[in-house]
Design a protein that fits this description.
Number of strands of chain B: 23
Distance between the termini of chain B: 50 Å
Largest sheet of chain A: none
Strand content of chain B: 15-25%
Shape of chain A: globular
Number of helices of chain A: 13
Order of helices and strands of chain A: HHHHHHHHHHHHH
Distance between the termini of chain A: 66 Å
Number of domains of chain A: 1
Number of strands of chain A: 0
Helix content of chain A: over 70%
CATH superfamily of the largest domain in chain B: P-loop containing nucleotide triphosphate hydrolases
Shape of chain B: globular
Structural class of chain B: alpha/beta
Structural class of chain A: mainly alpha
Helix content of chain B: 25-40%
Largest interface: A-B, 20 and 26 residues
Number of domains of chain B: 2
CATH architecture of chain A: Orthogonal Bundle
Oligomer: heterodimer
CATH architecture of the largest domain in chain B: 3-Layer(aba) Sandwich
Number of helices of chain B: 18
CATH topology of chain A: ABC transporter involved in vitamin B12 uptake, BtuC
Chain lengths: 309, 531
C-alpha cells in the first residue's frame, strides 16, 4: 500500500518535471551560446496553445508536437531577429517576448478555454511494462518522457564530445576570439536561440496535451521562469538541470498529496513550495565559485557587434 | 573539399616553379577608420622562408595590417597577393586554408576550455581528441614547446598560454606565421628558446612576419624589416646593416630619448612597510602568500621581479586594498596601519596605483578620457557639493593628455579607441598628476612600444626624484635593471631578500626567479637541487 503511494508519487514526479526538462535544456543551449532569452514563459505558452489546438483538431500527438515546436521557433525567431540582427538589449527583448506570448496565447485560446482533451495513455511496452515494480518505475511513461531522456543524452554528448558543441561553448565564452578564428558568431547564436524556442514549444505541448490535459489561460504558471532559474543555478550543466526539474516536479506532486490528506496548511502556501524549494536547493548546491567560473558562458547577455572587432 | 585541394596543389606548383615570387605581397593596402587612417597605401613583400619584421610605434597601424592579412579586418582598398595571385581573404578560416597562421598580441584563447579543445577549434577537419593530443605533443616536442593538452587554459601562466597559441598555428603547417608582439610575456631564456624555434621554421621554408618593439630582437632575428609610422611605410631596411638607434630613429622619427637620472640625497622615510603578511589562496588557481616582509622608502624605486603567476597578483591586491588583511599592522602605508582600509581610503592617504589590467581595472572602457580621469582624480577638488566640476576636470584631463603625449582625437574619445600604449600613458599620467606619496605600478610597459615605454619609464623616474616611493612589478628584467634602485624577487608566494641593482646581475636574479634564494620556497629548492 505504502509502496504503491510512493510509486505513484515517483511516476507523477517525472511527468510533472518533464515540461521543465524540455524548456530548461533548450534555454541551456541558448545561454551556452551567450544569449540570455528571458522569453521562455512566452514561448512555452504559445507552444502549448498551438499544440493543444492541433491535438484538438487532428488527434495526432506527432502533429501537435510539431505545431508546438514550430510555434516556439517562430517566437524565438522574433527574439533572435531583435537581439542578434538589430542588436537590441537581450533582457528587455526577452521580457517583451514573454508578455507578448502571454497575450497572444490567451487570444488564440479564447475558444478553447477549459476544453479538456482525452488523455493519452502511457506507452505499453510488451512484457517490460508488466513486470511488477520495475515495470512501473521504468516502463510506464509516455513517449515524450522517453524522448526527453534521449534529448538529455544527446545534449551532453553534443556539448562535451562534439566539435559543434565545442564551438558553441567557445562562442559563449568569448565571441571576439571566436570571430578571430573565423566562426560566424551571429549564425551560431541564431541556431542556439531557435533550438531553445523549439524545446520551449515542446515543453508547452507536454503541459497542455499530456500533463493537464486541457487549456487554461496562463497555464504555464511561471514554469518558464523556473526553467531559466534552473539553468543558472545548475551552473549550466545538463545533469543538474534535470535534477532540478525533477525536484520541482517532486515537490509539486508531494504538495498535491498533502492537500489531499487534508492537512491544514493554506493551499496557496503549498502551491508556492515547489518554486521556493527548487530555488533554495539549487542556490545551496551552486555556491562553488570555481564551477561557476568554469561553466558559465562569460559573454552571457552582452550584445556582440562583429564590426567593432 | 575539391576546391581546397586545387588551391593546395596550385600553391605547390607555384613555390616550385617560381622561387622568386614573394610568398605574400601587399599592394596599396588602405584601411580608414572614422577617426584615423590606420593604413595608407601600404606595400610589403615577404619571400619564402624570410623572417620579416614590421616595426612601428603604438597606433602606427601594424596590428590592423596583420588583421587584414589574417582576414579579421577587411581593407578598404588594395590587394593581397598570395604566391603572386590576388586573393580576397574574407575570413580567418580562409586564411588558414591558404596556410597563414597568426599569434595574437592579446591572446585569442578560450580560458575555460582545455589546451586540446582550444587547438581543435582552429582546425578545419574533425579530429578525435586522443589523436589530436598525440599530434599536439608531437608538434610541441619537435619545436621544443612543451604543453599539456589536458590543462585548462586559465590555469596556465601567460608565457605558456602564448606557447599554446604558437602550437595551435604550427600544428597546421603554416606557410606564413604572423607574430604580434610575441616576446612581451617571456623571460630572457624563453625568448632564446623561441628564437631557436622560429629559425628552425624559417629554415623549413615558413615565412614569418614578426612584429615587435624590441629592437635588439629584430636585429638578432629578422632578415628584412618594414618600418611603419602613422599608417604609412617610412622605409625598408636590412637589420644586419642597422643599429638599434638607427632603427629607432626611423620608427619614431627622432632621436630616442634616454632615461636620465638626476636626484638629490635626502633622509629616506618608510612609505610602505609590509610585515609577515600571509594569505592562503582564495581559489585553486591562485597562489598563497607566505610570510612576506619588505619596505619601500621615499625617493626609491623597488622592483619586484618574478615570472607571472607566482603571487604578484595576490600581493598587489593586498597592498592596494582589493583584498583586505585581518591585522591592520600587516600593511603600513605612509605611517598609517592600513591593512583593513578599502582601496579608496588607501588612495586618500597617498597611494597611487596603475594596475596590470588597463581596460577593466585601470579604466572604464566605455567612458571617455575625461570621465576616466575623474574616476580616481576626483581627489583633486573636482567635486563641489556632490557635483562634478567639469571645467577643472576637463583642464586636468587635457593636461594629462598633453604632458604625457597621449595620442588621441580629444578628451571626448572613448578610452577603448586608444591603442594599448596610449591607454597606459593616460592612466599612468592620471595617477602621477595626483602626486602620490607611494606609487604602485604593475607591468607598466607590457605590450607598449619603445617610444611610449620610454615616456612611461621616464615619468616614473621623475616621480621618484620628487620624493615618491615607487613599487614596480615587472617581468621584464631589462626594465627593472634600467629603472630600479633595489630589487626583490617573488617565487611561489615567497619574497627574496632585497638586492641593490648595482651589486647584482641578471643571471643572479634569473636564478632567484626559479626560487633559489636564501629562505626561498622549500619545494622549489628541492626540485632544483634534484635536477
Amino acid at each position: 500500500m505504502n509502496i504503491d503511494i510512493l510509486l505513484n508519487i515517483f511516476v507523477a514526479t517525472i511527468a510533472a518535471g518533464t515540461p521543465l526538462v524540455y524548456a530548461a535544456l533548450g534555454e541551456l543551449i541558448t545561454e551556452k551560446s551567450g544569449v540570455l532569452n528571458l522569453g521562455v514563459e512566452g514561448m512555452m505558452l504559445v507552444g502549448a496553445i498551438s499544440g493543444f489546438i492541433a491535438m484538438a483538431k487532428t488527434g495526432s500527438l506527432v502533429f501537435a508536437v510539431l505545431c508546438g515546436m514550430a510555434a516556439g521557433i517562430l517566437m524565438s525567431l522574433i527574439f533572435a531577429f531583435l537581439v542578434l540582427t538589430l542588436m537590441a538589449n537581450q533582457v528587455a527583448s526577452g521580457l517583451a517576448l514573454t508578455i507578448f506570448g502571454i497575450g497572444i496565447s490567451a487570444f488564440i485560446g479564447i475558444d478553447y478555454t477549459s476544453v479538456a482533451l482525452k488523455g493519452i495513455p502511457p506507452l505499453n511496452i510488451p512484457f517490460l511494462s508488466d513486470i511488477p515494480f520495475i515495470g512501473r518505475i521504468f516502463f510506464s511513461y509516455d513517449i515524450l518522457i522517453y524522448l526527453s531522456l534521449v534529448l538529455l543524452t544527446g545534449i551532453i554528448f553534443f556539448l562535451y564530445k562534439s566539435r559543434a558543441g565545442l564551438i558553441l561553448r567557445a562562442i559563449g565564452e568569448n565571441p571576439k576570439s571566436g570571430h578571430a578564428l573565423g566562426f560566424s558568431v551571429i549564425g551560431i547564436r541564431y541556431l542556439a536561440v531557435i533550438f531553445g524556442g523549439a524545446m520551449a514549444g515542446i515543453g508547452g505541448v507536454y503541459l497542455a496535451v499530456l500533463y493537464t490535459p486541457m487549456w487554461v489561460e496562463g497555464m504555464v504558471a511561471g514554469r518558464g521562469w523556473i526553467s531559466i532559474a534552473l539553468v543558472v543555478f545548475a551552473t549550466w550543466r545538463p545533469l543538474r538541470v534535470i535534477a532540478g526539474a525533477y525536484l520541482f516536479g517532486g515537490v509539486t506532486i508531494i504538495q498535491f498529496h498533502i492537500q489531499g490528506f487534508g492537512i491544514e496548511i493554506s493551499s496557496q502556501f503549498l502551491c508556492m513550495l515547489p518554486y521556493l524549494a527548487t530555488i533554495i536547493v539549487l542556490v545551496i548546491i551552486s555556491r562553488n565559485k570555481n564551477t561557476i567560473r568554469l561553466n558559465s558562458p562569460a559573454s552571457l547577455g552582452t550584445t556582440y557587434h562583429p564590426a567593432t572587432n | 573539399m575539391k576546391k581546397i585541394k586545387n588551391i593546395k596543389s596550385k600553391q605547390k606548383d607555384n613555390s616550385e616553379n617560381q622561387e622568386t615570387t614573394p610568398r605574400l605581397e601587399l599592394c596599396n593596402i588602405t584601411k580608414i577608420y572614422p577617426s584615423v587612417i590606420a593604413n595608407d597605401s601600404i606595400n610589403l613583400k615577404v619571400a619564402p622562408g624570410e623572417i620579416h619584421a614590421v616595426l612601428g610605434e603604438n597606433g602606427a597601424g601594424k596590428s590592423t595590417l596583420m588583421k587584414i592579412i589574417y582576414g579579421v579586418v577587411k581593407p578598404d582598398k588594395g590587394q593581397v597577393l598570395w604566391h603572386g595571385k590576388s586573393r580576397n581573404i574574407i575570413n580567418p578560416a580562409y586564411a588558414r586554408k591558404l596556410g597563414i597562421g597568426m599569434v595574437f598580441q592579446h591572446f585569442s584563447l578560450f580560458e575555460t576550455l582545455t589546451v586540446a579543445e582550444n587547438i581543435a577549434l582552429a582546425m578545419e577537419n574533425q579530429n578525435k581528441t586522443e589523436k589530436l593530443s598525440k599530434k599536439i605533443i608531437e608538434v610541441s616536442e619537435k619545436y621544443g614547446l612543451a604543453v599539456e593538452p589536458e590543462r585548462l587554459v586559465h590555469s596556465l601562466p601567460v608565457g605558456l598560454r602564448q606557447r599554446v597559441e604558437i602550437v595551435r598555428c604550427l600544428i597546421q603547417n603554416p606557410k606564413l606565421l604572423i607574430m604580434d608582439e610575441p616576446t612581451s610575456v617571456l623571460t630572457p631564456q624563453a625568448i632564446e628558446k623561441m628564437f631557436v624555434t622560429l629559425r628552425k621554421l624559417s629554415k623549413e621554408g615558413c615565412s614569418i612576419l614578426y612584429i615587435s618593439h624590441k629592437l635588439n630582437e629584430i636585429l638578432e632575428l629578422c632578415d628584412k624589416a618594414t618600418i611603419i609610422r602613422n599608417g604609412k611605410v617610412i622605409g625598408y631596411a636590412t637589420p644586419a646593416d642597422e643599429t638599434p638607434s638607427s632603427l629607432a630613429k626611423m620608427m619614431i622619427g627622432k632621436e630616442l630619448p634616454v632615461c636620465s637620472e638626476n636626484r638629490k640625497k635626502i633622509q629616506p622615510k618608510k612609505l610602505l612597510e609590509i610585515s609577515n603578511l600571509s594569505k592562503s589562496k582564495d581559489n585553486q588557481f591562485g597562489t598563497s602568500l607566505n610570510n612576506i616582509s619588505f619596505n619601500v622608502h621615499s625617493r626609491e624605486i623597488l622592483g619586484i621581479a618574478g615570472i607571472s603567476g607566482n603571487g604578484q597578483h595576490e600581493l598587489i591586491n593586498s597592498i592596494v586594498g582589493e583584498s583586505l588583511s585581518e591585522k591592520p599592522e600587516d600593511i603600513i602605508i605612509c605611517e598609517k596601519p592600513a591593512g583593513n582600509f578599502a582601496p579608496d581610503q588607501r588612495r586618500n592617504i597617498g597611494l597611487g596605483f596603475v594596475p596590470e589590467d588597463r581596460l577593466g581595472t585601470g579604466a572604464v572602457p566605455g567612458m571617455n578620457l575625461m570621465y576616466n580621469y575623474f574616476l580616481t582624480g576626483h581627489r583633486q577638488n573636482l567635486v563641489k557639493l556632490g557635483m562634478i566640476c567639469f571645467k577643472k576636470t576637463f583642464e586636468l584631463a587635457q593636461k594629462c593628455i598633453s604632458s604625457f603625449d597621449v595620442k588621441c582625437g580629444s578628451y571626448n574619445d572613448q578610452i577603448t579607441s586608444l591603442s594599448g600604449g596610449n591607454v597606459q600613458k593616460f592612466i599612468t599620467g592620471r595617477e602621477i598628476l595626483q602626486n602620490p606619496k607611494l606609487f604602485i605600478v604593475v607591468q607598466p610597459t607590457w605590450g607598449v612600444d619603445i617610444g611610449a615605454a620610454n615616456v612611461i619609464r621616464q615619468s616614473i623616474i621623475d616621480l621618484r626624484n620628487q620624493g615618491t616611493g615607487v613599487l614596480l612589478v615587472s617581468e621584464e628584467l631589462d626594465e627593472l635593471f634600467e629603472v630600479c634602485d633595489r630589487l626583490i624577487v617573488i617565487a611561489k608566494g615567497h619574497i627574496s631578500p632585497s638586492l641593490n641593482v648595482k651589486e647584482t646581475t641578471k643571471n643572479e636574479i634569473g636564478e632567484w626567479m626559479s626560487g633559489m634564494f636564501p629562505g626561498g620556497p622549500a619545494e622549489l629548492m628541492k626540485e632544483n637541487l634534484a635536477k
